[in-house]
Amino acid sequence: MRTDDGPTIKLEDYRPTDFVLHSVAMTIRLFEGSAEIDTQLVLERREGVGADTPLVLDGDELTLSGVTLDGAALAADAYTASPERLEISALPAAGRFTLAIGTRIVPEENTKLMGLYRSNGVWCTQCEAEGFRRITYFLDRPDVLAPYKVRIEADKAAAPILLSNGNPAEHGELPDDRHFAVWDDPFNKPSYLFAVVAGDLDSIHEEFTTASGKPVTLGIYTEKGRVAQAGYAMDALKRSMWWDERRFGREYDLDVFNVVAISDFNMGAMENKGLNVFNHKYVLLDSDTATDADYAGVETVIAHEYFHNWTGNRITCRDWFQLCLKEGLTVYRDQEFSADERSAPVQRINSVRRLKAHQFPEDQGPLQHPVRPREYKEINNFYTATVYDKGAELVRMIATILGRDDFRKGMDLYFERHDGDAATIEDFIACFEDAAGADLTQFALWYSQAGTPSLAITEDYDAASGTLTVGLKQALEVGASGTGGAPFHIPVRFGLVGSNGEDKAFTVAHGAEVDGDVIHLTGEEETVVFENVGERPYLSVLRDFSAPVTLHHEQSLSDRLALARLDPNLFNRWRILNDLVAEALVEASRKPLAPSQPPLPPEIVDAILGSAGDESIEAAYRAQALALPSEPEIARMLAENVDPDAIHAAVEAAKRFIGERGRKLFEAIRADARPAADFSPDADSAGRRSLANVALGYLAAASGDPAPAEAQYAAARNMTDRLAALAILVHRFPAADASKAALADFYTRFEDDGLVVDKWFALQATIPDVAALDTVAGLLDHPKFTLRNPNRVRALVGTFAGGNQLAFHRADGAGYRFVAERIAELDKLNPQIAARIATTFRSWRSFEAGRRHAAKAALENLAAIPDLSNDTRDIVGRSLR
Ligand code: 0A1
Ligand code: ZN
């Protein structure tokens, strides 16, 4: 096995650059088959740096075509150049100098999709994290900030549209049917926010006037013929701009804001200054081709990238260890936006589901790392659920600890104090401490200690004195890989619920600090004694999931069921039911139930049906009440000796049981859900569709009859209803003629729309049957399959590995071998995507012995490949550790 993997970058080694960058001017000449980049850097030796210290610039697969210093050629011995590095000595001891660097690249051959590449003929860039060094030699790190002036030249027919960051400055004609455009970005920015797009694109434009009256021209650019699908993204953009002004006092700063939708993109989208580049999945939609979930996704990602303009761009990160400074904070902001635009409890449920599905397994397995990592080998592998989603939870906890007003004061101070800076987590936390007069020293441990703490709650009520004693105990059960195990500051939002469903008043006699409805657990173990509580209350804890912990609340079934009905905190009603079901399914997966035993306790099922049937609550919430914990979530809770077949059998039995017991309700929901004449993507309409489709799923599970789904598929007038019906057919009745016919029909209807073809691939990749492996293997030869498009790879291979419990985790190990082979192929083209798919192995140690050995062997085979990329080697290496 190869061991010479790349160097480890450490937080403690941070030091500023030896040279200060003052400005960047670039000319980018685009041709078929090549691009010429001329870059002028105005630099200066940093004070105190010795005159013999050379300038070292980063490169990646670059070819140097020329370099001059203040207009004069450099002596051959004054520099050394390799594809990865340009080192220049004999530079002025003091004062500014201009370095002009020429590079030549071939965007058409760039399959990594980092740097400058072509997607369906369009030239585009992706520079975060270290892609700029694939365009020119540079101090390619986030604490090197400068204004940029960029001139793009290209053939007029091939690229009538020429875009870059900032404001448009000039444009004009050139000989040979070429033209140019100059863009001027006055705001200091790091290279990772640089962008260029050139191509034959359609666009829509709208005007937005900021709160202080500044006009901004908004543009969305798409490939030819698709711009009609960009209207919702434009609407979401305007709503985001309006919201950020109201909620955070943040106005947009340039004259233009452009979004470009690209087919081939490694991630969701990118917040380049004034020129956001998007995976077209998060821009393009209409009701025929996109589901309600897609609409919500577009809204969130548009908002997220826009919000980065302040949290990320105006204030950026000092180094990549601080990634959560921009990502956690921006996810928090986009979550708050969605909560305001849609429904707060439903959004919170969605965020918590996501956290548990992606972050908890990461935090409890070999890829565990602190929200602010201390070291990395490949930064691309740290765009993780821990940095993003747990990072957002940490910001949310700060807001919970300080309260809304002080939180806003801290944010205001952050924007004021650090505008234009490359900041750190310490800087961020200090703003809240200074604005609110709070001490967040202990809280800051959340950034450095990895792992999910557990929180155990006990309660003891004394009727004679009317006191309730609550015990709270925290522990880091799953080892925090050497990052420490000191107690966290855990904010526990709570309420004492009376039998009338209202929160009761109380006084706190003594114990842990209680502030309003938040208990501040700071010790390992503490108690709180509540006095004057009158009749015994139902204790509702961890409301709104106020901290990312695993909760163990010793509470009777009858109290939990009462809270599931009465808790004024809707999130907690859902959470309590979801926990009850999850615990029952974990038990049922551990050992087969006796034939006489119902698959779920009937009183729990009745509680779920009660929530689902409560017409006083919004439909989206009712649909959430019916959604069972996912099979991977049950696997995570089992923690060891996991048998996915047993989990699937338990979940299927539960679905049939709920379907039978709730048949009348489900039929009533379906009867109620006559589709409106016109499709509207609003949250309320989407919630109704979601509830009706969940009901259809349960009816199909209970009846074993594909006919209602078949009928819905045939009659569907939007993608949400069509895809829901098709999923029921294909997943539940894969052998039925109706299912085969619908799947074929779906393909013929949409074969020209890549985003819908992705759904068609993904649906087959997730058929819950070991035989899905053969289906997926067969689809590799489908004319529409390609390893070169990340969305397509994710749809077939990524979805299979991440979403097919039965076939990926086949007992014979064939699923693991298949995915490992695909990773090896993909690694040669696009290591970032290969490494991401490799993370699906992360929980391999929790499976039963046969699967465990097979998964390990597949990982070891990958590790043995001599020229495996740094990206994949890092994930595989850490997974095996
Ligand atoms: N900053 C982006 C995420 C992103 C990160 C790396 C990329 O490189 C391929 C692309 C995008 C965001 O948070 O949206
Ligand atoms: Zn982001």
Automatic annotation (TrEMBL):
Q: Which InterPro entries match?
A: Aminopeptidase_N-like_N, Aminopeptidase_N-like_N_sf, PepN_Ig-like_sf, Peptidase_M1, Peptidase_M1_dom, Peptidase_M1_pepN, Peptidase_M1_pepN_C, Peptidase_M1_pepN_C_sf
Named cofactor requirement(s): Zn(2+)
Tell me which residues make up the Peptidase M1 alanyl aminopeptidase Ig-like fold domain: 451-553
EC supergroup of this enzyme: hydrolase
Swiss-Prot/TrEMBL keywords: Aminopeptidase, Hydrolase, Metal-binding, Metalloprotease, Protease, Zinc
Q: Which residues form the Peptidase M1 membrane alanine aminopeptidase domain?
A: 232-443
Annotated Aminopeptidase N-like N-terminal domain ranges read 28-193
Q: Where is the Peptidase M1 alanyl aminopeptidase C-terminal domain?
A: 559-880
Annotated GO biological processes are: proteolysis
Q: Which reaction does it catalyse?
A: Release of an N-terminal amino acid, Xaa-|-Yaa- from a peptide, amide or arylamide. Xaa is preferably Ala, but may be most amino acids including Pro (slow action). When a terminal hydrophobic residue is followed by a prolyl residue, the two may be released as an intact Xaa-Pro dipeptide
Can you tell which superkingdom this protein's organism belongs to?
Bacteria
State the protein's name: Aminopeptidase N
Say which species the protein is native to: Aurantimonas aggregata
Q: What is the lineage of its organism?
A: Bacteria, Pseudomonadati, Pseudomonadota, Alphaproteobacteria, Hyphomicrobiales
- Gene (UniProt): pepN
